[in-house]
């Protein structure tokens, strides 16, 4: 099963924050007790072990966030470079993937420049398309023309998709 790379990974969850705060409070209390009362050595060692586990969890989450951010920045740089190098391009955001099929998928898109939402058919691509993806496409002049009404359903050919990046 593939993991959706579009949403930003969570760093702080309520449970992790509460566990960290409780562990910090216990560590401070037990450190004070260890100086005055004998026999709290094992409790102090237990709290220290829990603290190490929490530090590992926090560091893994922060590392995952930094990795996601650097990958996202690289995708946006690629998208911007292709936008400048290609002729007529536009960005669309995939709002929902309604019906994936072997040959493509029915999706709902928003034309970012016009803030227009419409259904679309996207041909199957080597990578899956996720809700929240921003696609850089070459618009099909046969479907979208200045002064003409929007098509009821826009068809996106696989070779018209130049790049994608997570919604910023």
Could you characterize the architecture of this molecule?
This protein has 168 residues and is an alpha+beta fold. Helix content is 40%, strand content 25%. It has two helices and six strands, in the order ααββββββ. It has helices at residues 14-36, 41-85, and strands at residues 90-101, 104-111, 116-123, 133-137, 154-156, 161-166. Helix 1 (14-36) packs antiparallel against helix 2. It is elongated, with a radius of gyration of 25 Å. The model has no long low-confidence stretch (mean pLDDT 84).
Write the SSE topology.
Blueprint (H helix, E strand, L loop, with lengths): L13 H23 L4 H45 L4 E12 L2 E8 L4 E8 L9 E5 L16 E3 L4 E6 L2
Parallel strand pairs: 3-5
Antiparallel strand pairs: 1-2, 1-4, 2-3, 4-6
Helix pairs in contact: 1-2
């Amino acid at each position: 099963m593939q993991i959706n790379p579009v949403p930003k990974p969570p760093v702080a969850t309520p449970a992790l924050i509460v566990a960290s705060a409780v562990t910090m409070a216990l560590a401070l209390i037990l450190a004070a007790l260890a100086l005055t009362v004998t026999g709290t050595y094992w409790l102090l060692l237990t709290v220290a072990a829990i603290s190490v586990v929490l530090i590992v969890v926090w560091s893994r989450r922060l590392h995952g966030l930094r990795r996601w951010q650097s990958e996202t920045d690289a995708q946006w740089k690629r998208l911007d470079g292709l936008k400048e190098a290609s002729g007529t391009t536009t960005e669309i955001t995939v709002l929902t993937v309604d019906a994936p099929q072997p040959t493509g998928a029915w999706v709902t898109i928003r034309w970012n420049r016009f803030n227009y939402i419409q259904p679309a058919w996207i041909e199957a691509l080597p990578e899956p398309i996720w809700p929240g993806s921003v696609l850089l496409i070459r618009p099909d002049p046969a479907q979208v023309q200045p002064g003409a009404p929007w098509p009821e359903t826009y068809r996106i050919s696989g070779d018209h998709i130049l790049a994608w990046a997570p919604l910023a």
